[in-house]
Amino acid sequence: MPETAEYATGALPGETVDAVVIGGGAAGLNGALMLARSRRSVVVIDSGTPRNAPAEGVHGLLGLDGTPPAELLRTGREEVRRYGGQVVTGEVTSAAPAAPSPDGDPRFTVTLADGSTLKSRRLLIATGLRDVLPDVPGLAEHWGHSVVHCPYCHGWEVRDEPIGILAVGPASVHHALLFRQLTEDLVYFTRGTDLDEDTRARFAGRGIRVVDTPVTAAESAEDGGIAGVRLDDGQFVARRVLAVATTMQARTEGLGGLELAMQDLPGGMGRRFVTGVAGTTEVPGVWVAGNATDLTAQVGASAAAGALTGARMNADLAIADTDAALATYSQSMVPTWRPSHTPA
């Protein structure tokens, strides 16, 4: 991503900050916004590679439906900065616990690719996820345009088009039923996955054609979009849109030192960070929000999760601040011994 005036990297603070947010998408920025509005010192570290960068607009977000993703993030960065938060372009190469404060408050060290470091009391992991496409030649170049994954993110825009479902496993059956709502011309390419007779009958009832012949490639049209798929028997099946349930992998680069628990989801759906209420983890002082833990969350849900997590982090910091203040106050109230004085 080219560096721009509103997204330039400033100097990192030398002092320990209240929170570092790793990831500047909807979850990270909204978490940072809540912290900054609570007068917390917060730094967002963002690599500038959002998952939804190829999309033309964000959908399902009330009041902002259709907003280009880059515009939404630009506005979000401005809002965080308005309240004193910092947004820094950079790639985190290491995040790990550091020695706690004398009163036991957590501390973390975050290192960036350029070798710079900063320390924080709390961490919010909002790195998002990476979509892994099936290994079908010609597919990746159309990702986010003619190749889509979410009927709620892209469905209206591809309505009434000839759509093909590239099956990857059991989740693709549900995928097909959702996309059937959007078009009457739907073909399901099994790609070697199991499809029982009951499901085939249900597909037939909905007018979904099933193709069992293996797919060898996705082919482009002259207008730059998808033309269709080539089968290994040479047959060509014309399609203008291909839908595929990607494998969704939480982005974990540089975070191994935190030793956060991970979970593989059933059916090959993907891998996520394990969290509790409001993004809590088993590592004190570390929270996770957005697609890194909720793989199917759209932008609105990720932003809401970030806001809730930011509020919980501020509450946790408030308790820690009060505990520290009480310890200082109690120490100051300890009476000082003075020898008694007897008048002559």
Give a verbal description of the structure.
The chain is of the alpha/beta class. 24% of the residues lie in helices and 25% in strands. The protein has helices at 26-37, 69-82, 151-154, 171-180, 197-205, 299-332, and strands spanning 17-22, 42-46, 86-89, 92-98, 107-112, 117-125, 129-132, 147-148, 163-166, 186-189, 209-211, 215-220, 226-231, 236-238, 241-243, 247-250, 262-265, 270-273, 286-288. Helix 5 (197-205) links the parallel strand 10 (186-189) and strand 11 (209-211). Helix 1 (26-37) packs parallel to helix 2 and helix 1 packs parallel to helix 6.
Question: What is the secondary structure topology, with strand pairs?
Answer:
Blueprint (H helix, E strand, L loop, with lengths): L16 E6 L3 H12 L4 E5 L22 H14 L3 E4 L2 E7 L8 E6 L4 E9 L3 E4 L14 E2 L2 H4 L8 E4 L4 H10 L5 E4 L7 H9 L3 E3 L3 E6 L5 E6 L4 E3 L2 E3 L3 E4 L11 E4 L4 E4 L12 E3 L10 H34 L12
Parallel strand pairs: 1-2, 1-6, 2-3, 6-19, 8-15, 9-10, 9-15, 10-11, 16-18
Antiparallel strand pairs: 4-5, 5-6, 7-16, 12-13, 13-14, 17-18
Helix pairs in contact: 1-2, 1-6
Mean pLDDT: 92
Oligomer category: single chain
Number of helix segments?
6
Q: Calculate the terminal CA-CA distance, rounded to whole Å.
A: 84 Å
The sequence of SSEs as H and E is EHEHEEEEEEHEHEHEEEEEEEEEH
Report the major sheet: 7 strands, mixed
Spans of at least 5 consecutive residues whose pLDDT stays below 50 are 1-6
Helix % is 10-25%
Shape: elongated
Q: What share of the residues does DSSP label as strand, in percent?
A: 25-35%
Global Rg: 25 Å
Helix-and-strand structural type: alpha/beta
Number of strands: 19
